[in-house]
Design goal:
The protein is mainly alpha-helical. It has one domain. It has five helices and two strands. The protein has a two-stranded parallel sheet. Helix 1 runs antiparallel to helix 2, helix 2 crosses helix 3 and helix 2 crosses helix 4. The longest helix has 24 residues.
Amino acid sequence: MRRLPVPLVPAWLRWLGVVAVAGFVFATSVLVTPPPEPVVPGKVDPLPLDKWRHFLAYAAIAYALAYALADSERPRTHLAAGVFTVAVLYGVGIELWQWTLPNRFFSLGDAYANAIGAALVVGWYAVEPYLQLRPVTSFLPASESDS
C-alpha cells in the first residue's frame, strides 16, 4: 500500500501548536467579551454562529493534540479516546469557568458543540494509516554541502 507522505514537524513545535490553539480558545472564551449575536427578525437559526465557533474550536484542539501525538507508539484507538477526552474535559472546564464570570454562563449546548467538534478527530485516526509521517527535513532539498 502506497502511503501519502506528510511532514511531521519536531515534537516541541507540535506541542507549541497545541498550547497556541488551546490558549486562543481560552482567551476568546474567558478573557474576551463575546460579540452580540446578530438578530434578524423572523429568522429561525437552528444552529447559531456561536455553536459553530465552539464546534470548530474544539475540532482544532483535538486535531492539534492528535498531530502532537502522531509519533506515539500507543494504539490508535487509545490515542483517539484520549484526545477526545482531553478536548472535552478542556471544554467543560472552560464552560465551568465561564459560569463564575459576569456576563457569561455555563451552556450545555456549548459543551455538546465542543464534544461534537472534538469527535471529528476520529477522521484523523481513520486516515492516519494511509499517511507516512516523515520528519519535515526529509521534504527539504539536500544542500551541496551534504554531498
